[in-house]
Write a structure and sequence with these properties.
Number of helices: 15
Bound molecules: flavin-adenine dinucleotide, NADP nicotinamide-adenine-dinucleotide phosphate
Shape: globular
Helix content: 25-40%
Radius of gyration: 23 Å
Oligomer: single chain
Length: about 525
Amino acid sequence: MLDVVIVGAGFGGLYALHRVRGLGLRAKVLEASDGVGGTWHWNRYPGARCDVESLEYSYSFSNELEQEWHWTERYAAQPEILAYANHVADRFDLRRDIIFETRVSAAHFDDERICWTLTSEGDEVYEARFCVMALGCLSLPTTPDFRGLSEFEGAWYHTGWWPHGEVDLSNLDVGVIGTGSSGVQAIPVIAEQAGTLTVFQRTANFSVPLRNGPMDESLEAAWKANNSVLREQAKKTSSGILNMDSDLVAAELETDAQLDQIESRWLQGGLSMWNTFADMLTDETSNQLVADYVREQIRATVTDPRVAEALCPSSHPIGSKRLCADTRYYETYNRNSVVLVDVRHEPIERITTKGIRTSSHEYPLDVIVFATGFDAMTGPLTNLDIRGLGGISLGDHWEAGPRTYLGLTVAGFPNLFSIAGAGSPSVLCNMILAIEQHVDWIADCLAYMREHAHTTINASASAEQQWVTHSNEVADATLYTKAASWYMGANIPGKARVFMPYVGGAATYRRTCDEVAEQGYRGFVLS
Ligand code: FAD
Ligand code: NAP
């Protein structure tokens, strides 16, 4: 029997393996794909890149790793991030404990033997005292159930399952469905390659310029000289990202000062606009100022006023759906070869053998790209048959939305940990820092249990309830709950509508987790 079984070899699973090995525990990682890197292994669509700066979107746990790695761009593209994940796997000799091409289908807790039994789709069985689910929040792509897809004679791809070989789109008629972060990144690059591009947009989303460019060598040198201090500073922010937090309250500023602040964030680029004002996601007037500015930029960029208007988001506060960051996204609609179809006015009726038919047109296509997102946060877990004490099913426990204690554990599922999932800051911040914080907390917990001769840890039902109540209260005080977003489970028909990530801020959350541990794992039953 293993001490620890970890599922998933993305950044979460890789670091978890490294940490638990450091405790002298016997561990294996089970990974569905044939490589490491998770998100960056699967999402190979044209234009895929991070929108947290490369120097920050990287591990902080090893100074040597930070010093030796060189990022070529301010925001790294997918191949470079994947190369980094592979470098980490080799540098820390992780591969020998990763079992690839093993998709876990069930995980059951054995009350008597106090162990988890994991079964793969290929019927292999693994047993371990502890189980760490590092499945990722955005690892289960969803393809809408359009009538006729199986009859389509062209090729179709999902951005989250992009083929590993080259996909040559040159001179082809391509359709992209979806204008979230993946679509917004892919559309400008596909437009350059394809003969024609038709974009099927359901909800116009806010996108801001990424302002990517080659890595500034002096910036990189300064980072490397001061990385430990900068990493500590980042840990004290609400997003885990430097230069993001703002303490300016819009209503306390004169109009000129408001505009200066908005413009400076626009020029800074990337996700910084998400926090233009401290109250931007709690106060509608503050939010409106930023939203109006971005809409003005869209109108100033897109030459056809009707297309510009269709691209202007109007259904949700800015930032309440994940803010997109792009490279020449709006400019793309000025190309003669690019057409925008607003599927709210012209709904997709079906996919035909030759393309996509809406209520008023048939669009002939050689290729359809689904940039339609993921069953986020809970999907990768509820997709498995996970059973805790007395055989209770996680799917049942979460029927009305995810219930966790600290986003790390679930009452009734002893010795099971989840990395950076629902109930934790997770997707609202720099996920690599969020992952490191979770893995460190779990590793410290395992060390504590060994030291105190405990064999099980189980969140109490009351601690879980308090965390759920607190998380909902914090979310309800924001504008996040005003959008039909994947954060709310709204993109999946029938999924419970609950704001899933913890919005109280990464630094506050980190302090809470530390306090829980310092107080002998308050809220947990250890035995
Ligand atoms: P993942 O990387 O998703 O890894 C999970 C692994 O688990 C995968 O390898 C998967 O194959 C495996 N797995 C899942 N289910 C099973 C199963 N049943 N059995 C076996 N194996 C399984 N975050 C940021 O902070 N900044 C960014 O700029 C950013 N950009 C992103 C861009 C894209 C296109 C996407 C989709 C996400 C982005 N994210 C970003 C979020 C990103 O998911 C995280 O930053 C991070 O990579 C997640 O790492 P992880 O290890 O938690 O999960
Ligand atoms: P997403 O944000 O969920 O976007 C999916 C898009 O598909 C939305 O525009 C959605 O429209 C549309 N859609 C879904 N079903 C549809 C249907 N039946 N008909 C028409 N349109 C439909 O997914 P994503 O773009 O893959 O991004 C997911 C998350 O991954 C991001 O929010 C982000 O956290 C991460 N990510 C980050 C980056 C980055 O820049 N670093 C890049 C990619 C992804 P509606 O809005 O109307 O639902």
